[in-house]
Amino acid sequence: MNEESIESTLHEERLFPPLAEFSAQARIPDRATLDSLAQAANEDLEGFWATQACAEITWHKPFKTVLDSTNPPHYQWFSDGELNVSYNCLDRHLREKADKIAIIFEGEPGDITTFTYHQLHQRVSRFANVLKAQGVTEGDRVVIYLPMVPEAVIAMLACARIGAIHSVVFGGFSAESLKDRIEDAKAKLLITADGGHRGGRIVELKAAANRALKEGCESIQHVIVLQRTGHEVDMTEGRDLWWHEAEAKADGNCEPVWLNAEHPLFLLYTSGSTGKPKGIQHASGGYLLGALTTMKWVFDIRDEDIFWCTADVGWVTGHSYVAYGPLAAGATIVMYEGTPTFPDPGRFWKICQDHGVTIFYTAPTAIRALMKYGDDIPASYNLSQLRLLGTVGEPINPEAWMWYHRVIGGERCPIVDTWWQTETGVHMIAPIPGAVPTKPGSCTLPLPGINAAVVDEKGHPITTPDRGGYLVITKPWPSMLRTIWGDDQRYYDTYWSKFGSQYYLTGDSARRDKDGYFWIMGRTDDVLNVSGHRLGTMEIESALVAYPKVAEAAVVGRPDDIKGEAILAYVILKGTRPTRGADKTLTEELRAWVGDQIGPIAKPDEIRFVDSLPKTRSGKIMRRLLRTIARGETITQDTSTLESEAILPQLQGKE
Ligand code: WTA
């Protein structure tokens, strides 16, 4: 960002106070209760988190130190306490909840399996013994490259049980990405499967794993292979073993290893804007605490809830809200293997109906994709069990929020728009559903104990409402990342250099409105500068998506002699794509609309109608690629994730 702050062009005035019926039963039922929590945290941050940590976590050895900030930015939490995360997710529930369903799994082909807490405990203990038999011990890294099946969670918890550090690699990643991650983590063991079901096809995980191991990955000693699809795969004698065979031989008892609260629980690689992926390293105690408190505060989790977070375990959302958070809270989760549109775009709603999902958490990209198919499909399923909805991953466009609210939530379910990052571990800024009125597109207010601010270039808080700036976290929090695996320097440079080791730099831009609500404007490198006005791409996109004919939009800048930057919008329509030449009227309609909604400054200079947009595996629009294309530069990015290469000419405006 330059000296000036970012101008906000999104003016959203709709306000949705919590419904009385919801609040009456909520864990945090009103603003006064929330304010008293927040006040306790403001007065004594350490005391506040210590109280939470004692209440939420079962400690083997209680901690005496709360926050150790002797070596910033290497903050430590509860560092003399001992616990085991798998014990907290399983063993401690056995007395009262042994027969409660922990996981309801639905495979893409339609197979359904359930696990009670007792059964899950058994499977995890057995598999932990399998790991031990392969020589895995405390501190070793284990890479998990599995489809979205219960065994992925079992493998994670088994690692946690013996103190091995897992690193889950999303099953959609290529052999090359897998290899990079294995090598960076110097993993000893790889856990994969013969395949997984996605979009009606089989994802060839073992084949990709074989390719990765052929070219390097010397640290890997063994590969454990889960049988999921049953089709033929190449096994290497002496190196590879079948999960079911190993598990059949293993003992069902495995005492948890008591670990220091700072013991690394997992690494999770995220791609930075440049360079190789960063191994975000999380600790055990603080992370678990954040996962538990947010399950209670933000998801208002109750014993009878059926909780479905649609994220893959390969993402942080899957770590915190498929595996650790809900299981530590003793909840029942739904896990689904496949895509939202297989065999048809009603699949998500059918799963909600069939399993009686009460809390549903997904990404704006999924909402926009399903919204495109209209209201009739969700209307044909019974979604009356739903009581709370959530979103994560990107700013949600207000119109997508309204659709989610109206069509999926039947205007009765609060929507929690949760802002957080792989690095933050858990939710940071999000509404407390029984207490905080929501506004479509705003993640509302920081959670108790979380100190967030919007600051200018010099690090001074921006006090003018709606002026955008850098989103920073001004005090340490328990679930924060501890470092980048093996690269402390990169940890300092990325997060703690711009404003020193005082403020954690999120990399996002945001503004606060007159009520103090936070509005995320996107990554700081996604800001346009049009004739000296700094505009958030996200807000122009939201204006476009608010036009009835538009399903999705991505806006990027390209250099312009006169304006500094010109605005190029890629637009997906709800109907068919107009061919080049036939799109002039629509382009004018859209330009006029954006002019009305935001102002003439934000009118796109060019609109390209496309069938799809390039997305990362986690569903974020690949803006850097779009920028390259918009500038007519040679494409250096990996385009293998595009739904079809055929859209390239469309993106380039050649078709
Ligand atoms: C973006 C996902 C707006 C943001 C948990 C952040 C969001 C990045 C939201 C982290 C939200 C996530 N509103 N933007 N509710 N949630 N983001 O590491 O830019 O995959 O920095 O973690 O996603 O993505 P990550």
From TrEMBL:
Q: Which Pfam families match?
A: ACAS_N, AMP-binding, AMP-binding_C
Identify the residues that the record assigns to the Acetyl-coenzyme A synthetase N-terminal domain, covering every copy: 36-89
N6-acetyllysine PTM positions = 620
Answer whether the UniProt record assigns the keyword Acetylation to this protein.
yes
Which InterPro entries has this protein been placed in? Answer: Ac_CoA_lig, ACAS_N, AMP-bd_C, AMP-bd_C_sf, AMP-binding_CS, AMP-dep_synth/lig_dom, ANL_N_sf
Q: How is it modified after translation?
A: Acetylated. Deacetylation by the SIR2-homolog deacetylase activates the enzyme.
- Provide the binding site for ATP: 393-395, 417-422, 508, 523, 534
Q: Report the residue ranges that make up the AMP-binding enzyme C-terminal domain in this protein.
A: 539-620
| Summary of the function given for this chain in its UniProt record | Catalyzes the conversion of acetate into acetyl-CoA (AcCoA), an essential intermediate at the junction of anabolic and catabolic pathways. AcsA undergoes a two-step reaction. In the first half reaction, AcsA combines acetate with ATP to form acetyl-adenylate (AcAMP) intermediate. In the second half reaction, it can then transfer the acetyl group from AcAMP to the sulfhydryl group of CoA, forming the product AcCoA.
Name by which UniProt lists this protein: Acetyl-coenzyme A synthetase
| Organism from which the protein derives | Nitrosococcus wardiae
